[in-house]
Amino acid sequence: MVAAGASRKRDGTVNIELQVIGHALSAVAEEMGAMLVRSSFSANIKERRDCSTALFDEAGRMIAQAEHIPVHLGAMPDAVAAVLRHEPAANDVFVLNDPFAGGTHLPDISLVSRTEAGFAVTRAHHADVGGAEPGSMPALSTTLAEEGIVIPPTRLGATTLDDLADRMRNPEERRGDFRAQLAAQHLAGRRVAELCSHYGLGRIREAMAELYAYSERVVRAAIAELPDGRFEASDVLEAADRDLELRATVTIAGSELSIDFTGTAEQHDGNLNCPLSVTRSACYFVVRCLTAPDLPASGGAFAPVRVTAPEGSLVNARPGAAVAGGNVETSGRIADVVFRAFGGAVPIPAQGQGTMNNLTFGNERFTYYETLGGGQGACPGADGPSGVHVTMSNTLTTPVEALELAHPLRIRRYALRLGSGGAGRFRGGDGIVRELEALEACRLSILSDRRRHPPAGADGGRDGQPGRNLLNGVEVPGKAVLDLQPGDVIRIETPGGGGLGR
């Protein structure tokens, strides 16, 4: 039996060496992630694992990405492309977070460095980047400048690192996380050099090219199995003052497909805007789920996919627009609406919770950020799982002991929200209930969605329950900034997934 990643020669034999090199490159990306997680200082990376790592070839094509955060899929190649324009030297390390030059939102800081065969990239969500609110995830920001310092592609040396950290809250923790990323970059350089020494640089380049081409062939073959046609769908995102419509048109033609967002709302004066790189990430995630979900992540898998959106729209915002919520909330709604459009061609799940339920606590002494799981939608043939992250997030929950040891917060309750999943032949997964008590005065930013509109059921299944946010028992909006005093309790009830079938 031939393994999934193997490549056949013209005579039908399997190129085992190529398969070994492919797995070795994937292992380097995974080891980079392990070093970053184990070396970092903040709970956001160390405990929640809100980070991604990847290897690229010399042309800037993604060859191997560790299985970390889906929303980084389509954006990391843009980071490498942005750095390539600065002609990086062999020992250069570049840092960037500009959403309109290869980033996603400002807390996601990327490092890019050369290896003997291309580039290595780490991306990690830092617990603060100097924004107007502690944690730099302000729920009500209206400009990018309010969300923190904007870092265009910049060579990173000791002086630059210290300067950046000093402009952020908890600078020593920021230095620690930067150094953890640097350690992962250096590890990648050593490991790729070892592979080049063992196999030869030419063979590594050849293997990278074939791995990229193999991923493209597999996805093209899977797309060719889908029915040709044009399929449309719409959904809404809950801004603080109104609903914003997203429209997607999927066109399948042979072994290629396009996803267009004409008709989507214009960018708005809040922070639910997306750079196009985030929109691509959400689209690539859906395509991967519906074509070759077990294929190792590689840029070749997305070569047959074209994503377009009107400039100045919610999903292709102009530089300077606030984007803190676009990366975490709009990305999930893009995935929802693209799945819904594909539902005209293939069976799809009911909608999951459709939000990351972002909570950011902090003051000048500490910052803490977390996202919360909820109900996944039921699938054709199975109930949806409960209490999990859905679509574009793949982070863990900070262990209660680690959270309470490091921050002036106490977990009062953490349980499933029983019965919140939609009924149907197959039930949607249940959301969760999480109560956190403030032990000292701090600020809280809440960025959440699916509070006004529930996750939809499918094929006659019932909708999941929408989420709720409460402060000391009083309901608060889905997007809010609150002043907490010692003893205040915030309760989050996350949405349940939709049911499927009658």
Write the layout of secondary structure elements.
Layout: H1 16-39, H2 43-46, E1 51-57, E2 62-65, H3 76-84, E3 93-96, E4 108-115, E5 118-125, E6 154-155, H4 158-166, H5 171-199, H6 201-224, E7 229-238, E8 243-253, E9 256-260, H7 276-290, E10 305-308, H8 324-342, E11 358-362, E12 367-370, H9 400-406, E13 409-417, E14 431-438, E15 442-447, E16 468-471, E17 474-476, E18 479-484, E19 489-493
Parallel strand pairs: 9-10
Antiparallel strand pairs: 1-2, 1-5, 3-4, 3-6, 4-5, 7-8, 8-9, 11-12, 11-15, 13-14, 14-19, 15-18, 16-17, 16-19
Mean residue pLDDT = 94
Name the shape in a single word. globular
Task: Classify the beta-strand content into a percent band.
Answer: 15-25%
Helix content: 25-40%
Distance between the termini: 40 Å
The succession of helices and strands, N to C, reads HHEEHEEEEHHHEEEHEHEEHEEEEEEE
Please identify the structural class as seen in this structure: alpha+beta
Summarize the biggest pleated sheet: 6 strands, antiparallel
- Number of helical stretches of at least 4 residues: 9
Description:
The chain is of the alpha+beta class and 502 residues long. It has helices spanning 16-39, 43-46, 76-84, 158-166, 171-199, 201-224, 276-290, 324-342, 400-406; strands at 51-57, 62-65, 93-96, 108-115, 118-125, 154-155, 229-238, 243-253, 256-260, 305-308, 358-362, 367-370, 409-417, 431-438, 442-447, 468-471, 474-476, 479-484, 489-493. The strands form 4 sheets. A 6-stranded antiparallel β-sheet has the order 2-1-5-4-3-6, with helices on both faces. Strands 13-14-19-16-17 form a 5-stranded antiparallel β-sheet, covered by helices on one side. A hairpin with a 4-residue loop joins strand 7 and strand 8 (243-253). Helix 4 runs antiparallel to helix 5 and helix 7 (276-290) runs parallel beside helix 8 (324-342). The two termini are 40 Å apart. Residues 1-6 have low confidence and may be disordered.
